Structure to design on (278 residues):
């Protein structure tokens, strides 16, 4: 596996290939990222992973500075998973001048849920993903379904800009107790880690109720959401949202829509997100 830090080196190494498969990451890798790399392997003629903590998608009060940077360990894991090429640019390489051209995603998709609680987040994500796709000329790019809305925003961006890349989702990887794998799980204290599974349990309960109770009225949906928020609150969480939405566009569902249940909540100082399709 080759590790490069500059665009010039990246382009030189990629010049021999026609169908790069890309797994963009911010590093501090876990089994979820590595599953994406393994999924990417048969989809291209070279498997590329990027490691870049993208300042643009962090608000000033968020964890950009403390986000774990573990390049050596990440590279070892990527190599073992079959990655061929790692692009790990410094900030000055990705943003040699202030990034004043940015992607403004559609507000009906990007200003709800995560976008509502993290204003500007999807502008930062879309801008860096567009740039990483341009740098790597990827023909296929993989993103985890744990970031369900992110995957959908990126799919829409690529479609609207007619970019020649296929966006593929990877299933959420979970610990044996159900907690979705996330780089931010490392922030949890041992006691919080024990408790963290409550987020998955909350989603599971809603999914089971929905499966048992179809068709549900709008009122049932909002009472399921508010019950779940109250239960999380009582257990010591600070939930941002628990939302039952339709899978196609994350808007409020109508009868017979395929559903997804999404949640974001803070446990101590750590904000976790998760979702389950119904
Ligand atoms: O999901 C992530 O790790 C990031 O949002 C991404 C897609 C690598 C863009 O920085």
């Amino acid at each position: 596996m080759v590790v490069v830090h500059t665009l010039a080196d990246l382009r030189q190494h990629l010049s021999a290939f026609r169908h790069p498969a890309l797994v963009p990451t911010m590093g501090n890798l876990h089994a979820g990222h590595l599953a994406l790399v393994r999924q990417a392997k048969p989809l291209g003629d070279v498997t590329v992973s990027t490691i870049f903590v993208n300042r643009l998608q962090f608000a000033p009060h968020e964890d950009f500075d403390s986000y774990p940077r573990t390049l050596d360990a990440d590279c070892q894991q990527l190599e073992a998973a079959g990655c061929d090429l790692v692009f790990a640019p410094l900030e000055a390489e990705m943003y040699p001048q202030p990034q004043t051209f940015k992607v403004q995603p559609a507000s009906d998709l990007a200003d709800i849920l995560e976008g509502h609680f993290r204003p500007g987040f999807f502008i930062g994500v879309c801008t860096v993903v567009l740039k990483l796709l341009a740098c790597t000329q990827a023909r296929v790019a993989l993103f985890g379904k744990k970031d369900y809305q992110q995957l959908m925003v990126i799919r829409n961006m690529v479609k609207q800009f007619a970019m020649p890349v296929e966006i593929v989702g990877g299933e959420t990887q979970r610990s044996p107790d159900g907690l979705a794998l996330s780089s931010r799980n490392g922030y949890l204290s041992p006691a919080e880690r024990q408790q963290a599974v409550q987020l998955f349990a909350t989603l599971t309960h809603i999914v089971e109720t929905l499966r048992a109770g179809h068709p549900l009225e709008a009122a049932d949906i909002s009472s399921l959401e508010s019950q779940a928020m109250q239960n999380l609150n009582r257990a010591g969480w600070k939930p941002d949202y628990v939302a039952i939405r339709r899978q196609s566009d994350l808007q409020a569902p109508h009868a017979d829509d395929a559903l997804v249940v999404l949640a974001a909540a803070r446990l101590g100082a750590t904000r976790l997100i998760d979702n389950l399709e119904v």
Notes: The domain at 2-170 is CATH 3.40.50.620 (Rossmann fold). The mean pLDDT is 96. The pocket of pantoate is lined by residues 24-26, 54, 57, 125, 128-129, 147, 150 (CB under 6 Å).
